[in-house]
Design a protein that fits this description.
It is built from 8 helices and 6 strands, in the order H-H-H-H-H-H-E-E-E-E-E-E-H-H. With 214 residues, it is α+β, with helices and mostly antiparallel strands. It folds into 2 domains: 7-79, Monooxygenase, CATH 1.20.1280; 90-211, no CATH class. Strands 1, 2, 3, 4, 5 and 6 form a 6-stranded antiparallel sheet that branches. 28% of the residues are buried. The structure holds zinc ion (ZN).
């Protein structure tokens, strides 16, 4: 089976199904429903690769949007098209965080790698957050202090409102003294939730550019 969908595209399709579900549940006007449905079909079509599963999915879209059971079954099928985030060994992770002496391991068994554009995990003991994200076709490691205080705010990575905390990372200053400056970003406390609502790569890319020590 060809892997033709990226995790953020999978998330984007799920978002479209939610939009359609809301329209079916809250709009009475038949014409309005039809407009929303046509719009959702167009968007999903632009994301989905042209395969049998995709055609199947589009044909069933109205049922998928109204039945949770149908939706779960359809998403399971679609997941087969997704290139999951790679499960990195401790050795591979170590190479991405060379300056970290005792790198805590992410709990891979709790992660849904089909909905993972980046890897993020917290070490509550040391109040740190570790992030592995794609950049120019490679993976890069970013880490920093993660404030234990939860706040309501906009996440710099997924750009959704939710429970966020201040992530403070060292960024090499361009100054002549070579000193480090720190950059703060509010990001989701739970990186799994963040990934599950990450349907565009734009904000993640700028987060990586501004926090990566280059
Ligand atoms: Zn987020």
């Amino acid at each position: 089976m060809d892997k033709q969908l990226q995790p953020h595209e999978f998330v984007a399709i799920k978002e479209q199904v939610i939009i359609l579900n809301k329209a079916f549940n809250s709009v009475n006007d038949k014409n309005v429903k039809a407009v929303v449905q046509a719009d959702v079909v167009e968007t999903v079509k632009s994301i989905l690769p042209d395969t049998e599963i995709a055609t199947d999915f589009l044909n069933q879209l109205p049922e998928i949007a109204t039945s949770r059971q149908r939706a779960e079954r359809a998403f399971k099928q679609l997941a087969e098209l997704v290139t999951p985030f790679p499960e990195l060994s401790a050795n591979q992770l170590g190479k991405l965080f060379k300056k970290v002496k005792k790198l805590p391991e992410p709990k891979w068994e709790n992660l849904d790698r089909h909905e993972m554009t980046y890897l993020g995990w917290n070490d509550n003991g040391s109040q740190k957050k570790y992030i592995v994200a794609p950049r120019d076709g490679k993976l890069v490691g970013i880490y920093g202090d993660f404030d234990p205080k939860p706040l309501n705010g906009l996440c710099a990575i997924c750009h959704q409102l939710g429970t966020v905390s201040m992530f403070l990372s060292k960024v090499k200053s361009r100054g002549a003294d070579g000193n480090y400056t720190k950059r703060g970003n509010l990001i989701c406390r739970d990186s799994s939730l963040c990934n599950a609502q990450l349907s565009s790569l734009d904000h993640l890319a700028s987060f990586v550019e501004t926090t990566l020590v280059k």
